[in-house]
């Protein structure tokens, strides 16, 4: 190989090595930037969720259990009343539901507590699911009665989507209503056409008028109940109070 060719070869290898080094540096920078972005998102989202969970005023004037905007279990003369303001998309509501459903149902059947679940639309910024699910609930409540509506309420939590989606579509909302015991002919078009939209708007306004600012908001015997550092702890302490 001539000196000229050897020189050209060394120059080519040097250029290739430089290009590879620059490419690696770009990849490192991209990974670093991506890691920082992810960390910021985790902090922001975590802070948002925590602040929303804690954003509940102690000054909530909740109407007694038996309102027009929920489903109630337990006798009217029970020694304790519990009102739960909730959003079917709220993950904390799902946690509280899983922590208390079995015990509160048992205590309600024993006549020890009257519980009302009041869904409303808090998380509209996350999409339309909060409104659609609550509207579907109102349709089932109107068309099929409170017993079926309570089963539907439970199924909505059993099938709760994440806040970022994907969300249950109308066909799934109808299927769950039928699984709960509703007649498909009674509820299908009403759910698909969002017939419960005004009910949701009214329920949401009633919650805001009562002073509710976060979900879940639990009202025990007329006072906001916040005894717990986690939803599991809150749920257990609530059950203990009404047992």
Tell me about this structure.
This protein is an alpha+beta fold and 243 residues long. The chain folds into two domains: 1-54; 71-242, Glutaredoxin. The chain has helices spanning 3-54, 91-109, 129-144, 146-158, 170-180, 184-192, 197-210, 231-242, and strands at 71-73, 80-86, 113-119, 217-220, 223-224. Strands 1-3-2-4-5 form a five-stranded mixed β-sheet, with helices on both faces. Residues 36-55 have low confidence and may be disordered.
Listing every helix as H and every strand as E from the N terminus to the C terminus, the arrangement reads HEEHEHHHHHEEH
**Portion in beta strands:** 5-15%
The tally of strands reads 5
Low-confidence stretches: 36-55
Kindly provide the name of the CATH class of the largest domain. Answer: Alpha Beta
Spatial ordering of strands, largest sheet? 1-3-2-4-5
Classify the fold: give the CATH topology of the largest domain: Glutaredoxin
Gross morphology is elongated
Number of domains: 2
Enumerate how many helices there are, as a single number.
8
Report the CATH architecture of the largest domain. Answer: 3-Layer(aba) Sandwich
Q: Find the structural class using helix and strand composition.
A: alpha+beta
Please render the helix and strand layout as text.
Elements: H1 3-54, E1 71-73, E2 80-86, H2 91-109, E3 113-119, H3 129-144, H4 146-158, H5 170-180, H6 184-192, H7 197-210, E4 217-220, E5 223-224, H8 231-242
Parallel strand pairs: 2-3
Antiparallel strand pairs: 1-3, 2-4, 4-5
Helix pairs in contact: 2-8, 3-4, 3-5, 3-6, 3-7, 4-5, 5-6
